[in-house]
Write a structure and sequence with these properties.
15% strand, 3-stranded parallel β-sheet, alpha/beta, 5-stranded parallel β-sheet
């Protein structure tokens, strides 16, 4: 189990709700993943419109928690305004904060991110910032009041996995007591397993599940990978060695000449 802003969750796999072929497939994928948290963009779903009502009906039936996001926002003002609207529509103080700074990679604008986080936390939000693996930025986000960090593995929707394992490992080591969720770039279950083996608390997957040939089967595969990676981390994996180490002891063996 893990705790995010005082909420206890059993599942360490979060799912984004965009780009699924149909609401029925989305429902089946969430169930197959055994996810307890789903993200949703205010730009795509509106609680006051029919599409939003249909989405809310699905969420209520599944009993999952919504994590609204500020996807597509490029300024502090835009992100704060979107977050405030999301709080009214979805009835939650949770917000996945995105402030995009570069179009090709969708890399976060970390300066705007820290500023927006300060503003939102002062207004009572519980912020999940989409950030990079930069240690200084992480420190400033925590100082601003963030109690969870969501560093990217790779650019959003790229499926490239964990581009900077050294940086992600350093982030985990420096902020040992802060829940860390890999957000963006994971393409296959082995990427999610690697993140969990590094000691990350959870992963957020959208495109890799939604755009798979069989999204439901892929969701189930990710669920198993996350569980396996976490179990491996807790079991204490061996450290890599530069030289061979025989599994069968040489001492005591008979030698023939």
């Amino acid at each position: 189990m893990m705790q995010l802003y005082g909420v206890t969750l059993e599942s360490r796999l979060m799912i984004g709700t965009a780009r699924f072929p149909s609401p029925a497939v989305l429902r089946q994928a969430i169930e197959a993943a055994r996810a307890e948290v789903v993200t949703v963009s205010l730009r795509r779903e509106s609680g006051a419109e029919r599409s939003g009502q249909a989405f809310w009906s699905l969420i209520r039936e599944l009993g999952v928690r919504v994590l609204p996001n500020t996807a597509g926002c490029r300024t502090v003002k835009e992100a704060v305004t979107t977050a405030c609207m999301a709080r009214e529509l979805f009835g939650t103080t949770w917000i996945k904060l995105e402030v995009i700074g570069e179009d090709d990679t969708l890399q976060p604008d970390v300066f705007g991110l820290v500023e927006a986080a300060r503003v939102l936390i002062a207004q009572g939000f519980e912020v999940f910032p989409y950030t990079t693996e930069d240690l200084v930025v992480a420190d400033k986000l925590i100082a601003a009041g963030c109690r969870v960090l969501m560093p990217w593995g790779a650019p959003i929707g790229s499926g490239r996995g964990l581009n900077n394992v050294f940086g992600l490992r350093a982030l985990r080591a420096h902020f040992a007591d802060v829940p860390l969720v890999i957000d963006a770039g994971i393409g296959v279950p082995s990427h999610a397993m690697q993140a969990m083996e590094l000691g990350y608390d959870a992963v957020l997957i959208n495109t890799a599940i939604a755009q798979a040939r069989d999204p439901v089967a892929m969701a189930a595969a990710f669920a198993k990978a996350v569980e396996a990676g976490r179990a491996a981390r807790e079991a204490g994996p061996m450290e890599p060695r530069d030289m061979a180490s025989p599994s069968t002891p040489v001492l005591g063996r008979a030698f023939f000449t």
